[in-house]
């Protein structure tokens, strides 16, 4: 066969390959030597996902093919592999496990490694996997999902200078002692990365413990923890002195069952943490704090917080805690999920909290307004919306407003067709006919500082629109309007 030059220039062919999906790149690699050599760099650039083969016999052909691809061309393709996502939990043949082990040993350029399935199951298929993964020299970002204890030897032996770590744990039935194993505590487990670690996320990894004398992580900026025992605030400050983002989930299994005793315990923890910070030091400020309102209150932070995201404001005790938290932290962004009953008049209602001096810094307000499951169908919705207008008038710096209203409590289903729903009572009728855009325009007219407003109504189709977003560059500038509709119940 006589050789013919391609009709397209090489740079054009490469540009086409750059925007092709993996399957198309693989086909292009079969057409000529130039594209065959250029393909691996593009196939591996975005980080391949390697999972179990989807075949009836449960074979491991997909993992085998991936290993053969990497080992081809005298193993020259490993230099392009900088990130890898592994979902393998089943290896049928020992030779495939051996090949994959050899590949891991050659992944000297890998910087991002994510185990999206059970890491412990994978480690069982080759005795060398633990050391091979632990010795990756350039690894910076590690994400692990695992069940039980099998991954701990690997984590304990890891020595790369990690920048971010994400840990997710599913418990086995016989692992009731997991949170008491010292190897599980990420505070000591990643001490070799204490000067480089910037992000740590512990999802149901309840072994997180900060104690007196814990290693200090000066580079840490983002911390997400699930903890059975809420750490003392000052120990967190000492361990992570430059933290900017804290997300905390607190599951205190020893909490008193009775509400009065529970609130007393929260109050004691709050006072202890406030007094300790006054003696031993605090963070100067946080950019973001997210968690249950009880955890945020118990921590007793005494610094400013730019973005405050407490979860769940459902009762009077929550309102009292919210009032104190906002008064101390003076946020510029506040996000609330609350029952409508808490958005009413009274000394500790949300409108009253937002009218106090600590709220004058608010630039962004996001409220998700829900109604109790037994809310009366004649609930006076108009009063809540009028109170919202009155509240916003006292926020002189507010620039962004987002309000979500759930109408699902005011819907009744058709007996003959359960998928068909209708407004229930005057509350449902009011929300069905409510003019969202006109209401948003009235807010913009009254609150001159507003630059963006978004109103969303869920659970009940509104012919005039279930969502409206209006933006403007300044008070008297042209408004850009976007309206969305919900066509199904």
Based on the model shown, name its key terms.
489 residues, 16-stranded mixed sheet, alpha/beta, globular, 18 strands
Q: Could you walk me through the main structural features you see in this protein, from its secondary elements to its overall organization?
A:
This protein has 489 residues and is an alpha/beta fold. The chain is built from 17 helices and 18 strands. Strands 1-2-3-4-5-6-7-8-9-10-11-12-13-16-17-18 form a 16-stranded mixed beta sheet. Strand 11, helix 14 (350-354) and strand 12 form a beta-alpha-beta unit. Helix 1 (10-18) packs parallel to helix 3, helix 2 (22-28) runs antiparallel to helix 3 and helix 4 packs across helix 5. The longest helix is centred in the middle third of the chain and has 22 residues, at 259-280. It starts with 9 loop residues before the first helix and ends in a 5-residue tail after the last strand.
Shape: globular
Question: Structural class given helices, strands, pairing?
Answer: alpha/beta
Give the overall average pLDDT. Answer: 88
Which band does the percent of strand residues land in? 15-25%
**Tally of strands:** 18
Which value, in Å, is the CA radius of gyration? Answer: 28 Å
Side by side, the strands of the main sheet go 1-2-3-4-5-6-7-8-9-10-11-12-13-16-17-18
Percent of residues in helices comes to 25-40%
Biggest sheet details: 16 strands, mixed
* Tally of individual helices: 17
How far the N terminus sits from the C terminus, by CA atoms, comes to 65 Å
Quaternary state reads single chain
List segments where confidence is low: pLDDT < 50 over at least 5 consecutive residues. Answer: none
């Amino acid at each position: 066969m006589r050789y013919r030059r391609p009709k397209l220039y090489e740079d054009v062919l490469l540009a086409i390959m750059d925007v092709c999906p993996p399957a198309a790149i693989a086909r292009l690699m079969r057409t000529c030597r130039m594209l065959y050599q250029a393909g691996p760099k593009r196939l591996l650039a975005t980080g391949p996902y390697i999972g179990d083969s989807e075949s009836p016999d449960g074979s491991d052909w997909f993992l085998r093919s991936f290993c053969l691809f990497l080992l081809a061309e005298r193993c020259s393709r490993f230099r392009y592999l900088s990130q890898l996502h592994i979902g393998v939990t089943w290896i049928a043949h020992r030779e495939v496990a051996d090949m994959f082990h050899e590949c891991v040993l050659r992944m000297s350029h890998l910087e991002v490694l994510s185990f999206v399935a059970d890491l412990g199951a994978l480690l069982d298929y080759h005795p060398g996997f633990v050391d091979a993964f632990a010795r990756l020299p350039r690894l910076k970002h590690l994400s692990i999902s695992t069940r039980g204890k099998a991954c701990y030897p690997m984590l304990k032996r890891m020595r790369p200078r990690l920048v971010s770590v994400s840990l997710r744990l599913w418990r086995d039935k016989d692992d009731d002692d997991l949170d008491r194993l010292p190897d599980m505590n990420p505070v000591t487990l990643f001490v070799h990365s204490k000067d480089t670690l910037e992000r740590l996320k512990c999802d149901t990894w309840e072994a997180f413990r900060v104690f007196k004398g814990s290693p200090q992580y000066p580079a840490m900026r983002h911390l997400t923890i699930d903890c059975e025992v809420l750490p003392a605030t000052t120990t967190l400050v000492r361990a992570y002195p430059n933290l900017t983002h804290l997300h905390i989930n607190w599951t205190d299994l020893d909490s008193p069952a009775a509400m009065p005793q529970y609130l007393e315990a929260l109050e004691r923890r709050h006072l202890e943490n406030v007094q300790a910070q006054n003696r031993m030091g605090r963070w100067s400020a946080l950019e973001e704090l997210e968690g249950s309102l009880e955890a945020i209150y118990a921590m007793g932070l005494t610094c400013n917080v730019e973005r405050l995201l407490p979860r769940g404001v459902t009762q009077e005790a929550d309102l009292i805690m919210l009032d104190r938290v906002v008064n101390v932290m003076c946020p510029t962004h506040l996000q609330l999920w609350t029952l409508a009953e808490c958005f009413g008049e009274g000394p500790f209602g949300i409108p009253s909290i937002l009218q106090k001096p600590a709220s004058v810094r608010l630039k962004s307000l996001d409220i998700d307004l829900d109604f109790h499951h037994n809310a009366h169908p004649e609930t006076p919705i108009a009063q809540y919306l009028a109170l919202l207008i009155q509240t916003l008038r006292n926020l002189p710096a507010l620039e962004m407003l987002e309000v979500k209203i759930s109408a699902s409590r005011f819907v009744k289903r058709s007996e003959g067709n359960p998928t068909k729903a209708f407004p229930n009572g005057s509350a449902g009728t009011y929300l069905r006919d409510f003019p969202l855009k006109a209401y948003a325009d009235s807010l913009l007219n009254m609150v001159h500082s507003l630059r963006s407003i978004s109103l969303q109504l869920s659970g009940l189709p509104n012919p005039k629109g279930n969502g409206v977003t209006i933006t403007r560059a300044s008070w008297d500038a042209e408004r850009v309007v976007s309206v969305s509709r919900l066509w199904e119940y």
